[in-house]
Amino acid sequence: MATRPVIRIRGARQNNLKNISIDLPTGELIVVTGVSGSGKSSLVFDTLYAEGQRRYVETFSAYARQFLDRMDKPLVDAIEGVPPAIAIDQTNPVRTSRSTVGTMTELADHLKLLYARAATLVCPGCNKPVQNDTVDGVVIFITSQPARTKVFITFEREAPESLDDAQLEEWLSAQGFTRVHAREGNKVRVVADRLVLSEDVDRSRMTEAVETAMRYGEGQCQVILDEKLLRFSSQLSCAGCNSFFKPPRPALFSFNSPIGACDSCRGFGRVIGIDAGLVIPDESLSLEEGAIKPWQSKSYLDCQKELLTHAKRRGVATDIAWQDLPQEHRDWVFSGDDGWKGNWTKQWYGIHRFFEHLESKAYKMHVRVLLSRYRSYTECPACHGARLKPEALNWKISGKTLAEVMALSIDEAMQWMKGVAADLGLSEPLPFHSENIEAGTMPKHVEGTEVSAAGSARNAAAELVLKEMASRLGFCQEVGLGYLTLDRQSRTLSGGEVQRINLTTALGTSLVNTLFVLDEPSIGLHSRDLQRLIKVLHRLRDAGNSLVVVEHDPEVMQAADRIIDIGPGPGEHGGTIQFNGSYQALRRSQTLTADYLSGRRQVQSPSASSAKEPPVAPRPGTAASSVKNDERRYVIRLQGVTANNLKNIDVVFPLEQLVVVTGVSGSGKSTLIQDVLYPAVCKRLGKSTETPGAFKSIEGVPLISDALLVDQSPIGKTTRSNPVVYVGAFDPIRKLFAQAPLSVQRGYTPGHFSFNSGTGRCPTCTGSGFEHVEMQFLSDVYLRCPDCNGTRYRDEMREVTVQGLSIADVLELTVSEALKKFEHEKDIHRRLKPLVDVGLGYLRLGQPVPTLSGGEAQRLKIAGHLADAAERAGRATKGMLLIFDEPTTGLHFDDISKLLAALRALVKAGHSLIVIEHNLDLILAADHLIDLGPEAGPAGGSLVVAGTIDEVMACPDSHTGVALQRARQQILERQTLRVEDIVYSDSLAEEESASSLQKEAAAGPMKDEIQIVHAREHNLKNISVNIPRNALTVISGVSGSGKSTLAFDILFSEGQRRYLESLNAYARQFVQPSSRPEVDAVFGIPPTVAIEQRTSRGGRKSTVGTLTEIHHFLRLLFVKLGHQHCPDCSIPIAPQPADSIVASILKDYKKQTVGLLAPLVIQRKGIYQDLAKWADARGHDYLRVDGEFQPTAKFPRLDRYKEHTIELPVGSVDVSAKEEGLLRDLVATALERGQGSLKLICMATSEERLFSTKRACPSCSKSLPEPEPRLFSYNTKLGWCPACTGTGLFAAALAEEESGEEDKYLEAANDPEADPELACVECDGARLGPIARHILVNGQGIHEVSKQSLDTLPGWLSTVRKKFNAREKAIADRLLNEIEARVDFLRSVGLGYLSLDRAAPTLSGGEAQRIRLAAQLGSNLQGVCYILDEPSIGLHPENNKALLSLLRQLQQKGNTLVVVEHDEETIAMADHLIDIGPGAGRLGGEVIAQGSQDDLKACERSMTGRYLREPMHHAAEPRRPKPEHWLQIKEANLHNLRKVNVEIPLQRLTVITGVSGSGKSSLARDVLKTNLARVVHLQRSKAGRAQAIQWDGCAGIEGWEAIDRVLEVDQTPIGKTPRSTPGTYIGFWDDIRRLYAEGEDARQRGWTAQRFSFNTGNGRCESCEGQGWQTVEMNFLPNVRVLCDACGGSRFNAETRQALWRGRSIADVLSLSVEEAMEAFETSSTIHKPLELLNRLGLGYLTLGQPSPTLSGGESQRIKLVTELAKARRVVSSPSLEGAAALTVSSSKKKTTKAAAAKAKAVSGKTVATAVAIDQAGTTRARAGSHTLYILDEPTVGLHMADVEKLIHALHELVDQGHTVVVIEHNLDVWAQADWLIDLGPGGGVNGGKLVATGLPRDIAKKKTPTGRALAGFLK
Prior knowledge:
Layout: E1 6-12, E2 20-25, E3 29-34, H1 40-57, H2 62-65, E4 76-80, E5 85-88, H3 101-104, H4 107-118, E6 120-122, E7 129-130, H5 135-143, E8 150-158, H6 165-173, E9 180-184, E10 187-196, H7 203-216, E11 220-225, E12 228-233, E13 236-238, E14 243-245, E15 270-274, H8 276-279, H9 301-314, H10 327-335, H11 350-360, H12 365-373, E16 375-379, E17 395-396, H13 402-406, H14 410-423, H15 434-438, H16 457-478, H17 495-509, E18 515-519, H18 527-542, E19 546-550, H19 554-559, E20 562-567, E21 576-581, H20 583-587, H21 592-597, H22 624-628, E22 635-641, E23 649-654, E24 658-663, H23 669-684, E25 697-699, E26 707-710, H24 723-726, H25 730-738, H26 741-746, E27 770-773, E28 781-784, H27 795-798, E29 801-802, E30 805-806, H28 807-811, H29 815-821, H30 826-837, H31 854-871, E31 881-885, H32 893-908, E32 912-916, H33 920-924, E33 928-933, E34 942-947, H34 949-953, H35 959-974, H36 989-1003, E35 1009-1015, E36 1023-1028, E37 1032-1037, H37 1043-1060, H38 1065-1071, E38 1079-1083, E39 1088-1091, H39 1104-1108, H40 1110-1121, E40 1123-1124, ...
Parallel strand pairs: 3-19, 3-20, 5-18, 18-19, 24-32, 24-33, 26-31, 31-32, 37-50, 37-51, 39-49, 49-50, 55-64, 55-65, 57-62, 57-63, 63-64
Antiparallel strand pairs: 1-2, 1-4, 6-7, 6-17, 8-10, 8-11, 9-10, 11-12, 13-14, 15-16, 20-21, 22-23, 22-25, 27-28, 29-30, 33-34, 35-36, 35-38, 40-47, 41-44, 41-45, 42-43, 42-44, 45-46, 47-48, 51-52, 53-54, 53-56, 58-59, 60-61, 65-66
């Protein structure tokens, strides 16, 4: 049995991890536990997950990665075998109230799409549905009327009322209309047509009339049926209300968009305003007793008096409680008198106007403070909490607005959605479980897939969205979240709920071989719900995934396959592996965790209340019995609570006790405490807060002083926040140091000993102790400050000591050490002791708070409260109400024990504690329990039981009681474990090994296949196939058979889509996840990575450095460690702040006298008399001129024409701590006068030193920008050379305003008239601007480093590493490691000869492919499925062997490889073969054979098997005689060509080959084609022919005069839009249109050929504009593409389709395949011949109307060849044509103009050649008898062996017609069939560029060269 692969972690040092090395088996549920702060998250999240996620994200494009939140590279020596990772944690990154359950689950995004696509508009005026009318709909309605109905089709226009009827008729007649139906004022109803309905009514006439009426009526028309007027509108309008509406779009239904958000509340659903509850906090008070709180202060007592006066006049009672006042009187108090006239003295203004008046004075601080006390959030009065604009609420689905749907729970939303599906006539959604979703039958309505014409775009979009929503809702139900409402704010969710929402995403991915990392998934779950969670975790594991869970719950531990215990203590005391094994073995080991699991230690004995003995002596009435007897003292009583699902419950909370509120998840705990109790108490205390949930009354609030929520959120975010500051102990410590004798002598105050401010802190690090270096896409680096060595203080401050310790030494003490050291300092001791009491005595006083764990942060907060309580000791004060929500989150048993001790200390200090908790240990320690339930959601919200532990356990309806009984039983069982059973963990290895074998045996054989069930994508015919995992599978078949569909559209798309679903919607909109493919099920699929062949070569700004990302790391290296120099003077530049200058002077010139000067003039010409007068007027006696001091009073006349440097002496000082103040003043003055610069002169040594606070050249004062990575980018104005805009070339076509786009450059590259490529004269090809070029590392700029080859770069990196100091090494270490790793992998695949600045367009296909492969090899992922598309393309057989070796290496790392390939070597190496066929297109799509190579050979239907059995025959003798005429290229030297002299025979098939990078493309494309193109272009004019020929890249080319045309036939698309088809490209579609125009139907209607065009004219369908498809934009989902409803995908309108030719409409012809069309047009030679050629080249399966974007590169190339072959045949049949065609090619396929033809015909006496490259548009027709040179680059790309044979025949046919064909190729069949071979090499790059051999194939086969050996073996 195969062992499971493992994840190997070696030398993990992240945070506090101590060089951990461990192996983690995959396919297991592993729990990592340990005390809080021991290093669990550092190992699991910061190391393991970070590396797994980072490596997979790196497989995406650089553009996509910037949105994917790539993790930092962890500090670890090595991680091997890590799968792609997905984290499921409790973090909710969005805390705004805009974030809801709907937005988190993305159901809100799907709902807004659903409403935008499928909602019905309801008119708010008449409450009737509103819809727009179509022309066809109006026509259908009219024709449905009874016969002989009189019909008027009209439209309304505005006409001037001054026109009389005659003038009106004349005005209308000018527009083509002759009849008016009615006229009312300026409204005229014009008749477009009138008719009487009958059976033979002309439908087309009616359609035209309706179209005309709609057009002239601006989208509206009126139809009169026998005097009955009916209105129709193509717009959204209500005819009854005459209301118009805008079409919906998704943003209208988003409260996060200004388009949809309510204008009043801006989408929050709440507004901030005066809260009546805060104005009248106690409704039991009367108006006389001061119910209106703001008027009880001295400032506003007059308002109170005026209220009482006006109330008496009004008859409002002032002596009864506010709550008993009639509503009318309450309204009067708030709103004032009716008919308000602004008389403040005689009228009652009311509370509202009082606050309005205050708002007008809000510019005053005290008024703003007052207003803040009475403001809170209330429901928006405009949208009433719906968040959306009224326009959005007019749209409904199944009778509900979006706001109403968002108010539903997940369970209710599921039922609503099923109703929606029924209303829309869609299939009812599946049972919503992940098994069904994975095997779902979701229909395909996406790009490139057909939808029946009967199905509308509306229903298609709705069905897609409903299916997506179904899966998400189903998963939410599966993890027990069905009770949550969609509009529940995410910030109100518990951590457990957040994590379970994230867990639904993991379930939805249905991935295998994935690493899922979870953080405390049991948090927030009641014990009853834990088993449901465990089942979900096991299900993920059993699907073939690995789970690593940070957890402390014993039940989850028991369910784990493996437990890793990290410790032994927190922080610096942890970070080591204490145990690694099974749960049972852990219980018998000797770790802290084992002590608690075994019962040797206990968290807490049962609570005091259970034993009837409260731990703290209660005040009267606090005992449980008192509460039970309804005592009202010392309790808070909350009555009639009905918020959310709470069912009118009354709850009593005893004070000064530990009260625990528990219940199943969703029972209402958070609602009760956080939504009702806490805000209600805060309001009664007068604190600003949110409006509490609904309740009747609250009592007992005056018994407490304050209410606080205590959570685990970070206390501070900077390193300056630490424990000693938080508990307030640092202030007395600083006072103690300020009283030290040395401090008194120097005048130091406590402020000097602050590291947050003041002059005592280190100016370099500003008191943080570290230098923070931002590293962009790597994790930031924190370096110990070099000046203070991390102590935070200046040397002078550290000289002050107390008890032998400096202030910095004190911060390094632990709390326990500090207590002992300062035991006699009462203030310090009182503040520090609570830290020890809560178990934090091990913390250092200065430990940065961000480094604390959540549990430590929570206990620190408790210590702060205890410290405050100690401060108040002896004073009679009320205790506080402290509320904790899940305080045990992230806490180990031992931490919980410490937490309980801290909570007890708070209770003892007089505070009251309310804890929401599920942890049984804490529940057992409670004084009072409140259990809500019994179930969740609507079934919860009741008070099940309240009382002691025993009382709860005695309640039969309490799930908590059952759990407590089980917990007590487990405690007893743990205590029975015998001492002799305890063994050390290292003695358990043997048992663990046996246990592991037992688990594997019990699990049975692992599934090792990817199962694809019933795939129907594109032409696949419901195929099912199994692909073995961890193997190399090759998919083969003829071109167009469906190979790529299976590999990429199904396998890759589904694997990547499932991983991307774990990302947020924001990221996915940039990555564009694929849609669900049309397949019943895909099982066992891991995350996928595609390595495709790309025909695009990229632009000049794309280089080897940018492709491999080495340049990005170099950019960061130069930004952080480069030394900036002045571009003009080459002088180093080093800025520093003023404080650093002072510190440097104090440190470097201590006890020395220095003089400070301010530079005024630097190297400038002039006499400067005015400057001397200015200095003299300000009391300066001297200026220093050119190093000499000159008096200002008698300033000498300077040489006007000499450059001078003038400095102003500011003063001198003896450098010491005593004179620091004077030094600071002099430095400030010098910097001010010197504009940021000063010069220092040491009097003793005459040393001069320049200081500057800005980046400016000390010599020329030129200011320079702060370096940043963009400064080294070729694609931004900030970095590129302004002369060449980053291309490195002198190109007039480019200018600075081009903003980095390559289009013009690429056009220029293919332009025959373009100038030869020359290096930019400004940057000499460096591409960068002067500032970037003058930032140096090791004396070299980044452009100089980029010129090095990959073979030499490691030497430079090694040198740089040695020269860096310790600080620089710390910054550069990871950067250099990343660069070295990438360079090593590139060199390992044979690309060491490449330089980093090599432009991407100059790379061969093989080089580009290997670069991408090297990147994947370097990712070192495990368990990934790599999909490769023809990796052998562009590779010489010699290189192919290296490629196959790489593929095998990837597979042996535990990955799955699926390769679409035709190469016989690859097929032979495959572990598994799948052959798709038997034909192409609709004739393919079947699995013909699968298995081994012998299985394919044995299959008679397999075309691949046939060619493997019977390879293509190659004749021993040459096909043609020895050529007579040759093209001779002299001394070709472009790129790596080494003065190559080569001959190419004319009218022959010549193949140029050689290893990758040997110079083939340089010779054929860049030398041969480019030169002939320019030369031929010059021959077109007399002036051009007179010019001397200049050859680029060679000395010359001879024999070219025999060539008439040069065409490069490549694989670029023949068009970019669906309107470009094979028929339109080749040209026979025009002939077909003419045939139809000559038909009887067309002639009767007067139609020309233009009528039958789907690109223009009146014949095409206007709805889809002739495309046949309608695309529905779906934002973050794939766009929905459906057949056009109007034309059914036929592209033409109904009238045009009525014209027939031989029984077929023009639309029918578009749907014919080439083979079918051959038969249909066999009598038309102009149409039949190109069709025959298409069929001969293996394209018979294509349809005539197939959109060009759906064609493969090979299909496009063969269509171009057909165009040339068809053209050649026409030329042969028309020998009378004379002259040369002036050929131009553009994106619109321009034809030869008459002027150009005339100009060409005027040229006589010799043959004129024209050079053209066939690109995306096509070519043009050539003259008769022309001799064309065809150049093809790798034409066999994507071709099956059968198609290669057809291609070879086509190439030979071109030669037989008298043309010359030059092919760059590595295919051995093409080699063997060539007339002539040219072999370049012997190696690649600098090792290539030579002519190795040339001759006949049989002669080359005799050579001992790579090509010769390969050919000889093949011919045998």
